[in-house]
Each structure stands twice: as structure tokens, then as C-alpha cells.
Amino acid sequence: MSEKTVVLVTMAGVFSLMILLMGFITAVLFYYQKKRKTFISQLEDVKSKYEQEILRVQLEVQEQTLLHVSREIHDNIGQSISLAKLYMTTVPVDAGSRTAEMVNNTEQLLGKTMEDLRDLCKNLTLDEIKSEGLGKAIESQVNQLTKTESYSVIFEIRGNYRHLDDQQEIVLFRIFQESINNIIRHAKAREIQIILDYRPHELFLEIRDDGTGFAAPLAGKGSKPLTGGRGLNNMKARAELIQAQLTIKSHPGLGSIVSLIAPTPIKISHT
Amino acid sequence: MTDKLYQISLFSMTLSSLVLAVFSVAYCWRPFNPSYLRSFPIYAWINATVNVLPLFNHSWTDVSEFFYTIVELIYFTYFLVNLIAGRRARILLSGLAVVLLLYISLHAMRHETTPYMGRLVIFEAFMMCFGSLLYFRELMVRPVITDLSSNPGFWMVTGILFYFALEIPCLFFFAYFKFKKNYELASASYSVNNYAQVINTVLFIKAMTCLKKR
Description:
The complex is a heterodimer. Chain A is α+β, with helices and mostly antiparallel strands. Helix content of chain A is 62%, strand content 14%. Chain B has one domain: Up-down Bundle (Rhopdopsin 7-helix transmembrane proteins), CATH 1.20.1070. In chain B, helix 4 (61-83) packs parallel to helix 6 and helix 6 packs antiparallel against helix 7.
């Protein structure tokens, strides 16, 4: 072998070895990166399931607390007001006197308080949803809103009504309540339009108002997190729990639209 | 041609070892560095000294190479043992290093002049490649996931693997040409070892600089 051949063979050998080593390192990096991606995705999955579980438990605790408060109001305060009203009827007064007028006013006031308490209990407990379904529960809320004479409310049910799982309907109803509460507290609206659309594979709920509106970020499943207050974040968290897509559109002075698309049958995430 | 190739490689290696020594002082003692990097400047400065000394007195070449072999064996073993999590692998690697050190000591005692340790260095190279591959195996198997681009251990071990994997054929060729009394080609093939050390240095610098303060 000539010197030139030996040098060439040596060089070729060394270069082959270097390429082999670089290939090996590249393969290690490639495989490791793949492993890392899988690990991160699994970690996010676990985190998301954990957060959903926390939220589910929080909601359960919240519902239980509301139920307890509602029962206490109904059984204790309600009972006391009924008794007070009964006592008022037994107060001996002269007809047409100033005292009679005051007793009559107090009776009316107690009656109104009892009615308000009954409405409050209805809002706190979800017996109506369980017995009558989401549509009726929303209708009941609409009636209460209309009674205040502060709002003109239009409620429309489209598609074939079907009763969903109780828990799913509760989550949807709480989102609806949160949205209505926001309108009452902040929107200064006159008109509220509610659409409950039972589509073949999804449920569409829209709450539209003509209030002051606000600078709202678009929010939905897989999009940017909401940067609103606690109420908006609660709505988002609840929507995620039933894998629904929540979108909030609003501009200052142009009212707001809250829409929710929930796949049916909706699955509550249990870990 | 081969002599020129060797001279260039020697110059590159010496320069890179000096750069490494400077970088090691600048980067290895940062408070957020892993503990195994703290001792790295010792190795880097010994390496630079060993490379620079023969430039002043050629007769020191064999002594410095002998000394360097022992230092790199101890340091790289310490380094790999720190990075590898498997207990058995660590014991095996440490055991091999101790055996090799004992053998080198006996070998040195039997020879009046500084011994030529070609076979021992090849054995050391195989051992280091084995240690590096153990690390890579653990990287694939262990459930701990980190960002490799900012993992000093990964770049260090890659440097060690590159250096020793290239050193094996280079030493074989060196021994072969020396046996054939073709000293020009022997030094040419040894220049590959020098270039391997330059690559090693680049990867070590990457290892030292990859970690950023959070």
C-alpha cells in the first residue's frame, strides 16, 4: 500500500467514525426529544385531569353548601316569617285605624319577603332542574327577571328538547346564572335574548344583551385563558368541565354575547 | 505533508486547551452550576499545562503524556460516576479505573524510563466509551426528563465519547505505523487524536456555557 492510499484510508475511516458518532448523537437527541414531548403531553394531561377533578369537587361542595343554606332559609327563617305573619293576623286592631294600616303593611311586607325567600331557595337548590329540566329552570329564571320589570327578556328554545344528565344540566345552568348575574350587576341592559338550541350533536346556549358591554377577550376550549374577573373564569372552568366551548364577545357600548357549545351527550370528566 | 498536518493539529489542540482552561475559570464556578463542574478547572489547567510544556522542552512529552493519562482517567471516571445513576454501573466503572490505575503503576515501576502506554490508553478509551454509552442508555431509560440542550452532563459525555471513540482507531494506526517504522505516518495518524481533542474541547465549552441563570 502506498503512503497516499494509507492516508486516504485512515482519513476515510476517521470521517466514517465521526459521521457514525454524529449520527448516534443525533439519534439520541431525536429519541430523547420525542420522549420529552410525550412526557410533557402526559404531564399536561394529568395536570388538566387533576384541575378538572379539583373543579368538580369544588362544584360539588358549592352545590352542597347552597343546598344546605337553602334548607336553612326555608326551614328556619321561612318558618319564623310565617309565624310572624300569623301573629300579625291575631293582633287585635280597630278597623280603619292607623295601627290596622301598619299591621296590614307589615303583613304584606312579610308576604313579599316570604315570596323572595322562596325564589332565592329555588335559585340556590337545583330541584327544578332535576325534576323539570334545564329549559324549565331557565324559563323560571326568565319569569323572575321579567317580574322585576327592569328587563325585556326573550327566551327561545329551538330543536328537539332532550333531558341531559343532571350534573351536566346543573353546570350549564350555573353558567347561565353567572351570565345573567353579570348582566344584572354590570351591563345596565334593557333587553336580554336567550336561545337554547338542541342541535343533533350539540347544545347551543346564547345569552345576548344590549348593555354597556366591555372589552372582552375571546375565550374557548384551547384558546387563550380569559383575563376577566372571577365570574368569567368560573364560567370558563365550568365549561371546560363539560368539554364545552365558551365564547364571549363584547365591545364597550355594544352589549355582549355569551355563547356556549356543549357536545351531547356531554361527558363529565372523572379521573 | 503529514508533518505539516501534525503540526497544525498540535497547534490547534494546544490553543484549544488554553481556551478551555480560561473558559473553565470563567464558567465553572458559577453558583448555579452542578457540583461536578466545580472541579473541572483542575482538569482543564492540567490539560493545558501538559499540552504547553513540551513546546518548551521536547523531552517532557512522554512525562506529560504519562501524567495526563492518569489525570484524565481519574477525572473522567469521577465525572462519569457522578453522572451515572445506576449503582452497579458506577461500581463497575470505578473498579475498572482502579484496576487500570494499579496496572499503570506496576507498569511504570517495571520500566526505568517513562513507559509507552499505548495498549493501556486503548483500554482506557474502551472503558470511557463504555461509561459514556451507559450514560446514554440511562438517558433513554430513566423517567427523568430534562432539556438536553442546557444539560452540561450531556455535552460533557458527548465530548468524552467523541474523543475516546476517535482515539481508538488513531492509536491502532499509530502503533501500526510505528511498528512499520513509518514515523511520518504514525505522527499523521496521531494528529487525528489531536483533532479529536479539539472537538472534545468545543463540546466541553458548550457544556460549561449551556446552563443559564434562571
